[in-house]
Amino acid sequence: MSRGILDGIDAERISQETPELSELEGMVLSLTPDFLSISFPRDTDVPIASVCFHDALHTLQEATYALSEVFAHRIWYFEKKDPPDKMCATFFGRFYADDAALRLYSAGEHLANGIIMMMEITDEDLKPYKIKGKQGKERISQQSVVGNYLRSQKMSHPITGAVNKLVDSKEWCTTINYRNRLVHEQPPTLKGLGIVYERRKRWKPASNGRFTLGLGGGDKPEYCVEDLVGFIKPAMFEFTNTFTSAVKFYMELLKDAGKRTNQPLDGSEQ
Question: Which of the two residues, 217 and 236, has the higher pLDDT score?
């Protein structure tokens, strides 16, 4: 185990730093695709949204756990260890912060697919939004495609309002960009893990027209663990709010379908 056991007071401190998921868990876990399919046509995708929401919930739970471990390791290595171990606090802090960012992106993809199924958005509907502007590059992220579709075609829809709050969040955008760099580029460098190097040519032009080469010392780190927490934590709270809004809309949709068939499809009892 990478840390010792913390007491109840520390656990309570950590719980204040992560989203409370009990309401969301209660709603999502009440949704069963087989039962929901009773009151929908055989060819509809609406019940499949419940599976996407289950996937999003499980991934969000994992991301929340990862973020809680950032705080737990910092408490352990800074407050419980004597002397404090900054290197271990930083190593494990980054490990779990990266995990949280990666899982948040995944949860966003699951949520986007849930919205597609819930609103019965077709591939043909999304096709124009898979190409990014004048650059002509294809959008790979489903959440990006769905977000642009909603803004263009469903501006007044309540789901669009909830999604806009997320995609307009600076911290969410920073978290997604951080995840993309972890996957597609050099991982952002972090202070506290020794000498770090950027992927760049080492010779630098000097004022006299020549070039200089610095030997040793490395490059300036881009982030510290506190920086990572500073954008991942609010991004997680914002995602939880958006996810909750989407599920509440879905449950209202199910209630309407249930009324048509006299079935309580939202998990409630008649």
Answer: 236
